Amino acid sequence: MAHPGVVSHRQAPSHPSAEVFSARFDTAGNVRQIAEPACSHFHYHEPMRHLLVTGAAGFIGANFVRYTLAMYPDSRVVGFDNLGPGSNLDNLAGLDQRRFAFVRGDIADLEAVLRTYQEHSITAVVNFAAESHNDRAIHDPSPFARSNAFGAQQILEASRRFGIERHVHVSTIEVYGEQGEGVPYFDEQSPLLAKTPYSAAKAAGDMLVRAYMHTYPDLEVFITHCANNYGPYQFPEKLIPLSLILMLQGQKARLYGDGLQKRDWLHVTDHCRAIDLVLRRAAPGIRSGRLPIYDISARQEITNREILERLCSALGKRFDDVVEYVTDRPNHDRRYLIEPKRIETELGFVPSVAFEQGIEETVRWYVDNEVWWRKILSRHGDKLVFDWAQPEGGARGAAEAPQGAAS
């Protein structure tokens, strides 16, 4: 029986070609249990041999690098990252250096991107690079505008000039804004109504990518929007890893407001699989008036409070002993939810990680990888949490009785 906090908000459509990949992570963060897709009638694009992954030292980017190297033994991946606040080279530790190379660079630096394309004979790009933490965006919006909007345009322009075969721009559910009354979910046709500094910067990047889709029809570019991700290697400023780390240190996790903000949750492995499907299967161009945009969800809607209840249960702790409510952040979206029907029916995407199992494995990963997160605390511990009862959010360390954690 599903946990009462998990809402499978709509029935997934059946599809004769849908297959369940099995690509899961062991406690060291390595992909295991991989099966090739069973279906054969899709047209496969093969741009994988020389793939550039931007934001490669971040949470989702690093997981995608590991996924790609495990799934495609003949592929070569170049990671590109400016090593900003949420990046961590430890996320890429242990990779086969014969098949993986790392370049430190900024997607907003057109010449640096073009030089990397040339030096590594890049044929396809997946752009994960972004500033992504809502709290930091309130504190200082400018880096978000530079990376998420200007940077998105600059790397896409580099792809256009160089003749990249396929370019996937990875975006977020938050560009659609907050779900209003009477709106059951967002989909690819929904208007972009972002209302926070982070999501507005991502929406600006989306609009620039959409403009390229219309203006340069020969450029094979795609957009994806994902639900909230969780899993290994997530930087501990987000709800799940930060709350886990606080509880593991004997401190209290904090919930913003009443903790009833609802989010759509997706395991990072399933997100990687979905991006791979778009990269390899999606048809380019505007078809029947629809842009090549895909929304990615596992149809699992859960409140922030219920997330922390799950974490407490996994750690054997009582909720009231280790969680307290704190002042909500300004302009905090109450709810957003997306409909993944298009990627399910067109590309055969089927989520493989049930939330119950995914959250248990995630807790286990952070318990088993204390060295990984303690190194982050030693470098960034004074900037991981915010107290919105104080001016400008009063950023404090995760080892200092912090005052907030939110998704």
Structure characterization notes:
Helices cover 35% and strands 15% of the residues. By secondary structure, the chain is of the alpha/beta class. It has a domain of 275 residues: 3-Layer(aba) Sandwich (Rossmann fold), CATH 3.40.50.720. A hairpin with a 5-residue loop joins strand 1 and strand 2.
**What is the mean predicted local confidence, pLDDT?**
87
CATH architecture of one domain: 3-Layer(aba) Sandwich
The name of the CATH superfamily of one domain reads: NAD(P)-binding Rossmann-like Domain
In helices, the fraction of residues equals 25-40%
Oligomer: single chain
**Can you tell me the CATH class of one domain?**
Alpha Beta
Q: Give me the side-by-side strand order of the main sheet.
A: 5-4-3-6-7-8-12
Q: How many beta strands in the DSSP annotation?
A: 14
Here the CATH topology of one domain equals Rossmann fold
